[in-house]
Amino acid sequence: MNIGFLHKWKSQVKKGTLAFIALNVLKDNEYYGYELIEQVKKHTKIEIAEGTLYPLLNRLKKENLVTSKWVEQESGIPRKYYTLTPTGEETLLQMRTFWFDLEKSIKKISK
Amino acid sequence: MNIGFLHKWKSQVKKGTLAFIALNVLKDNEYYGYELIEQVKKHTKIEIAEGTLYPLLNRLKKENLVTSKWVEQESGIPRKYYTLTPTGEETLLQMRTFWFDLEKSIKKISK
DNA sequence: ACATATACATTGTATAACTATGTATTTTAT
DNA sequence: ATAAAATACATAGTTATACAATGTATATGT
């Protein structure tokens, strides 16, 4: 059944998908990184590695799709909260269009 | 709106997706490379570059998911036809499961 | 005390899409 | 007749990103 191929493939599918997922999650609420991972794990079957998410959030910030602010906790480690920028919201809309077209295309060819 | 980001993102989404698309197309018929590109272009919005497809088909062959055979033409350049192997068919089923779970997850978080 | 969970981050590796380029044949347009 | 475009394969180099491994530091449960 070629488990090795399947494993590599799933990893490749996540490329790009994870940015889309993160922006979707941040559309309605602001979250800090660790919380975002937990949210996605709770509501979907998707597991995002920490070593994936933190660089991803930094990329999104550099691209001006999200902003972040540190929030001190009364107890515990400070948290970095992320919010969508207006650019981020517009871009997310474009991404959704592309994604749903892709879904439709794949549905068509997988009959 | 960050066109640069969007362009890169679409390219990343294609990683993995294209292998899935190619296997889906080959599920019901055998095709040669150039024809496969035309088929996908005709039935979907997806454009596969030649420099992407030929290496992809070679990978799939090396992974034992497809086989190929040369077919001479009465006129014109010989064509290399690709067919799914039994391993390819099984793997495709696993891929479909993952893909449709992913779809569902994304639908959930993009509300 | 010790393990686990929380919360951030970086480095190195592997993989795959795409551009550019190349070869060769056939068809279409001028 | 000849040039351009389409058909049909292929490879090398560039770029981007997921993930494992590793590191720092605090808090909580046993």
From TrEMBL, chains A, B:
<dbReference type="InterPro" id="IPR036390">
    <property type="entry name" value="WH_DNA-bd_sf"/>
</dbReference>
<dbReference type="Pfam" id="PF03551">
    <property type="entry name" value="PadR"/>
</dbReference>
<protein>
    <submittedName>
        <fullName>PadR family transcriptional regulator</fullName>
    </submittedName>
</protein>
<dbReference type="InterPro" id="IPR052509">
    <property type="entry name" value="Metal_resp_DNA-bind_regulator"/>
</dbReference>
<dbReference type="InterPro" id="IPR036388">
    <property type="entry name" value="WH-like_DNA-bd_sf"/>
</dbReference>
<feature type="domain" description="Transcription regulator PadR N-terminal">
    <location>
        <begin position="23"/>
        <end position="92"/>
    </location>
</feature>
<dbReference type="InterPro" id="IPR005149">
    <property type="entry name" value="Tscrpt_reg_PadR_N"/>
</dbReference>
